[in-house]
Task: inverse folding
């Protein structure tokens, strides 16, 4: 017995919908990680969807435990703030590390030179 049976219908429906939407968004991000061809395209799937998917799951958890315990449960807000602050920064650092790796290796057409931000040194 986990308490979901005692949850009123007005709360069970949004919790279920948020769980389904959050799981679907995370699944789409994982499929993007598997299906896209280059590293620079693959990093966008998880980087973008982790925030929205995790946000939906945390909202569902917050609503579930608030209704179940008859008091405001806000522990998930701390988790949400941590994810919102760290996920974009981590994705940016991973992408920058890949760009510098490609620049050091001298790889052309790897995505590092798009937008003419970075330039490859001419070899003598």
Result:
């Amino acid at each position: 017995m986990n308490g979901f049976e005692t949850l009123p219908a007005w709360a069970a429906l949004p919790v279920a919908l948020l769980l389904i939407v959050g799981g679907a968004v995370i699944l789409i991000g994982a499929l993007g990680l598997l299906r896209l061809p280059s590293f620079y395209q693959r990093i966008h799937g998880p980087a973008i969807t982790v925030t929205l998917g995790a946000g939906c799951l945390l909202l569902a958890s917050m609503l579930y435990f608030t209704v179940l315990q008859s008091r405001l449960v806000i522990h998930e807000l701390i988790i949400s703030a941590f994810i919102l602050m760290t996920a974009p920064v981590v994705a940016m650092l991973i992408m920058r590390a890949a760009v510098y790796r490609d620049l050091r290796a001298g790889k052309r057409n790897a995505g590092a030179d798009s937008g003419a931000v970075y330039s490859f040194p001419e070899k003598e």
Summary: The chain has a mean pLDDT of 83. The helical segments are 9-35, 39-42, 44-69, 75-105.
